[in-house]
Every structure is written in C-alpha cells, then in structure tokens.
Amino acid sequence: MTPSPFRLALFSTVLAFGAVASAFAAPVTDADRAQILKAVDADAPKIKDAARKIWGFAEVGYQETKSTALLQGQLKAAGFKVDAGVAGMPTAFVASYKNGDGPVIAILAEFDALPGLAQTADPVKTAIAGQHAGHGCGHNLFGAASVGAAVALKQWMVANDIKGELRVYGTPAEEGGSGKVYMVRGGLFKDVDVTLHWHPSGANSASQGVSMANISGKFRFSGISAHASGAPDKGRSALDGVELMDVAANFMREHVPDKTRIHYVITNGGSAPNVVPNFAEVYYYVRHPNPEVVKSVWARLEKAAQGAAMATETTVSSEITGGVYAMLPNDTLGRAMDANLRRVGGIDWTPEEIAFAKKMQESLPGAPSIDSVKTVRPYKLELEGGGGSTDVADISWVTPTVGLGTATFVPGSAGHSWQNVAAAGMSIGEKGAVNAAKTLALTGADLFTDPELIAKAKAELLERRGPDFAYKAMLGDRPPALDYRKPATGGGAE
C-alpha cells in the first residue's frame, strides 16, 4: 500500500521532532490542569478589569495606544520580555517567556474597536455622548483573556520547569487593517510551532472552519471645485466619479464568481451641496474563499474606477489598505482544543445576567434560547461557508493554528452590533473571556508536553496547503496603513 501524503508528512515531521523530543515534559495530568485552572481563576479579576478598561478606551485600528500599553504592562509585571512596536506598527508587540529549548507556542491578542458603535453596557440601544467607536466584535475581551491565559500558563511552566517558549502577539487593527499580515510578512512567526487564538461569540465551540479571503482599500477621486449653481460648467465633481464607479461595481455583481462579496461606503462625498466636490473617497471590500478570485475582482474594480474617472473628467488613485488569506483549519488541533473546552464546560449566568439577556433579546426577533450558553456545541470540521474574514488566516498558512469561541454575547446577536458592544462591556462578556483563557491555557499545556500532537498538526498543515506553497501577502509590499481609520481629506479647500 502506498502511504498517503499525510502519513508521509507526519513521518518526516516526527523524525524532525525526534532530536528535540527530550525537551518535552511528561504528559499533562489532572493535577496540572487543576493548577492551571486555579491560576486563571486567581487572575480572573485582572482579566475582567483589563477587558472593561479596553472596552472604555474603544480605540480603533492602529490607534490602540492605551489598550496595548495596558496589556504590555500586565505581561511585563508577570515576567514576560516585551518587544513593542514590531513590524512597523506602533501598537503591536511580542511578549516572550523562554525556559530553555523546546516548542514555541504563540497566543494571539487583539484589542481594536469598530467605528460607529459606541454603546453603553445596557440591554437597550443607548449611545455614549462624545464617543464614536465600540467593541462590537469583543476584542476588549480577546486581548484581556489571551494575556490572562499566558500569565497562568507561564506560572505553570515555572512551577514545573516546563521547557520551551511562550509568546503573546499583540496584534492591532484586525478590523480591516490586517495587522497580523505585517507580522507574518516580517517573519515573526517563522519559528512558531503552534498558534492559539480565540474569539468572542454567542456560543461555546471549538469547531474549526474556513473564512473568506479579502482585499480592502480606498479609491480617491480628484476634480475641480466650482459654485454648483453659479458656475457648474467650470467644475468636475469627484463625487460624480465615486458614484459612477459604484454604479459600475453594482452592475458587475451579476458577473462575478459565486460567493463573491463586494461592499463599500462613501467615506468622503464633499462638504456642501452648493460646492462641486474636488475630492471624494470610497472604501471597498472584496471577499471570496479563493484569494485568486479576490485579486481578479479587485482588478476589475480598478478598471471601473478608471472608467468613472474618464467619464467625469476627474482623476483617481487607489490604495490597498488590507488583504488577508482564507483560514486554513487544523482538525488535529481543533480536536485537542475541543477536549479542553469540554473540560472547562459551559457558562452559568446569574439571575441579573439572565434578565439582561432577555431584555436585549426583545431587540432580536427569533433569538435562540439563552440556555445554549450552558453547553458546548458538538465539534465539527467545516470546509465550506465562512462569511467573515480575519488576518488570523495568514498565520494559519505559515504555522498550525487553532481557535475557539466562547459565549460572550447574548445568543441571537449579530456580529458588529450595539448588542455585542453592550454584552462585551459587562459580566456576560467577562465570564466568556475567563472560559476562553482557561481553554487556551490548557491547550497550551498539552502542546508543551506532547511532541506528537505538534508533529501531527504540522503534517496536516503541510498536506492542506500543498507542497509548493510560498507565502506572499495579499496586500503586497506596502507598509502598514496606520491612518486607515482616520478621516479622509484631500483635494484642497472647498
């Protein structure tokens, strides 16, 4: 019988690990797990405090100065060495604890907020005066829990003389800024054996699945200002260019491959109706499971922009501000993480939290039962679907990567919603974050003590991505788009 590619890859990976297998400790015991869970529980007040503070900061991509400083401070206090401002991003960092030779295990930490979602921690829609952004994806919980997991895992490593290196990657601007891509492109994951992450959710699950590749960017049109009534013939409207491009893009939707998604917002359309706008900007996303399709559709958008500029006698420039691969799931790691999530279990809410959730569900027609947060969903490997995109995907192509979700949101809440912001800012979100920290820490302990688990995960990665893969970032060679969340300006006074 001819061995399968997976078995051949597994065999070669196990051989490669043979030289370092002696660095691994004995398998994780129930006493080890109890020690780790106790450490997370002891640190839970710090996890919750950090989550609430970052929720209050509500800093958008590449502007997360307070959020990153808080997490870096916690890691330094716990004995990690912190390298800040990595890969050209002032708010990015890599924190490390190393104890001799052994596996390198990474945990991801996010902390950026979303514009336009400021909301109080209440079950009814209530804006926060003077605030624009909010944590509608729960990244305040993400970063806080990941740091909490790392602190507990490091304590266990010290107490038991576990060999290897534990890293925390502080990754800014996940929401459209593709912060992790610059880290991957810069080689910061080249020696990582396995990467762990998690994400806030409406349910508890370690199922592994795919995501959508995407390219995002901005098209900026420049024209000529004029009095819109007194001298309209002297003007050339940049806004006309944007709107004509949008019309072309909307007609193009009929003629793109299935599963393609195209979204846009006009981020600058001029300042006053009686002035022909000499500058306008539109912000586009293109998504598809296949990165090559994304590149092809984006090239067609570029043509639509050029055609609109010709038709309106304006000029146009474009800038790709983000771009990510589709997620490459790892079933080997998914099953290991699922086992640990089941050890941790579901989440119990207090009567006050239940009342909060039921009140919020009045704004969510057809919402499922809140009892679902008490359970862990059955494990699945899902190779179809995936409507969102994440820069975690780029990491999954260069190192075996696994994630989970825990119930931090009220069941039935939509992603990127005011309901998510509210739940992420109170105890419902914090309880889910603590569960995530426990699961991450337990899975990290398994990896530090089980060379075969890492070998199998690496062999699966090699099989899924193919033998000839060479990583090349979807966003090319550009530096980080540090101003992508700043207001669009240009074209002179109007």
From TrEMBL:
It holds the Pfam family Peptidase_M20. InterPro entries: Amidohydrolase, Aminobenzoyl-glu_utiliz_pB, Bact_exopeptidase_dim_dom, Peptidase_M20, Peptidase_M20/M20A_hydrolases, Peptidase_M20_dimer. GO terms for molecular function: dipeptidase activity; para-aminobenzoyl-glutamate hydrolase activity. GO terms for cellular component: cytoplasm. Keywords: Hydrolase, Signal. It comes from the Bacteria. Residues 1-25 form the signal peptide. The keyword Transferase does not apply. Residues 215-307 form the Peptidase M20 dimerisation domain. This is Amidohydrolase. It comes from Caulobacter mirabilis.
